[in-house]
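Possible regression after last week's pipeline update?

I re-ran a chain I had predicted before the update to compare outputs. Posting the input and the new output here so someone can diff against the archived version. Not blocking, just want to make sure nothing changed silently.
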Amino acid sequence: MASKLAWGIIGTGRIAGVFAEGLAGSETGQLIGVGSRTQASADRFGDKFNVPRRYSSYEALLADDSVDAVYVSTPHPMHAEWAIKSAEAGKHILCEKPLALNHPEAMAVTEAALANDVFLMEAFMYRCHPQTAKLVALLRQGAIGEVRLIQASFSFQAHLDVKGRLFSQELGGGGILDVGCYCTSMARLIAGAAVGKDFEEPVELKATAHIGDLSRVDEYAVASLRFPGGILAQLATGVHLNLENVVRIFGSEGRIVVPDPWIPGSSNGRTSILLHRGGEQRPEEITIESERGLYSIEADTVAANIDNDNRQARPPSMTWDDTLGNMRTLDRWRQSIGLLYDSERPDAQPLTVSKRPLAVRQDAKMEYGEVVGIDKPVARIVIGADNQGWMPHAAIMFDDYFERGGNCFDTAYIYGGGAPERLLGSWIKNRNVRDKVVIIGKGVHTPFDRPEYMAPQLAQTLDRLQTDYVDLYFAHRDNTEVPVDEWLDAFNQQLEAGRVRAFGGSNWSLERIQAANEYAARNDRTGFAAVSNNFSLARMLVPVWDGESL
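New output (post-update):
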């Protein structure tokens, strides 16, 4: 890099100041701008850290063409929004951990970085330090044999302030997201290094926690993880409990202790790893020295990797897949203790993750078709209702699809006990797009595959979807013991009542569809408008039902 990387900082909190101090010791970067929510705050920060450009908004900082990279240091719930907006502004991104409030939001951030060809790294500074690289090397060399148990803790005792960031539901408070994310990232790193990978995902997670009566967040929590190959991990975290913040790794031929895993070298640039081989009680002390501070190393890591082909840092620094896996694990930890943030509830997401109203992108390239009876064009690519079971995932997927020009959503009465229909209905209501989307509903699935079940199932579907009609309604399964005229009469009854705009069959044979439409023609009834057999982007190699010629 011919000249130093020009940095801007979004936010002026404590961690922003820590990073600013780190940049002062960086070999590759210089701080030229800061954005805050007020001019006074930006000026105070600028005076303290000698920042020449001070902006009263984050948007103004991103509009500065002189800024090459930004450090996002806002509270957790704002990380995804400003990382996405930074990517859209063409800025390279170092985003404070966790990258987002949850895994779905993190997906949206990485998608934005990919679409705008910018560098992105989650700011786990310990991953950039040579101590972590040395630890990985020891594990890969088999210094303690086969890794069997990992213990990692990161917790501290903060003053209980339910309006402050650490204990606020609104600000994504609690130990798991604030510092438990370090423990999960370390455990996944160690489990991966033990088997020659960059990281490994847990196959099982069980957890418990103390959730404060006033804070409603995890004030301290523990988790037990199981990784492939019999590797176990015990994690402990909190914001209202002092613990011994240390990492211990037990193997078949010894153990490793990392006394200062999270902020290595913070006092004098020296840190150490304690290696106990076999049954020896006296450890071998492996010393790691660095002339640069932890945050200086982090900034230089960004600069050293910014021109990589995939715009990602090299391991053990956080790659996008590593970050996404870590976010999934954090989601599982929170789900295990029943912690859902208010902002993640189905009725609490009126805007997209970028905090902009939902709209089709100007570069959208969706193709559309027509279905008789439906007065809207129907996207050729249809998205299925979300089966993940919670709104953040549904909202991220539906928003992205809609922004790309998609407008057709497929669901069914039988899916997930009704959860997908409820999520879709909440998303449509939150985004106020009912007149812009096409809903495909399906009902009367086996063993309730008879016309008399159509009306009550459709009524329940409409209630879940929070609408008074579906655009296209399918009989999910045919029952050939029922004459087609009984099916057509039931469909037309719903059509005449205004509860559907068009109807058809899913998994019906060509012969039965033809017979149904012939009955409709003879009796002045409306016939099938569509069929959804083999409704998939995949190509069917072995047909699973008769009528595959459809």
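Follow-up from reviewer: compared with the archived run. DSSP finds 14 helices and 22 strands in the chain. Marking as no regression found.
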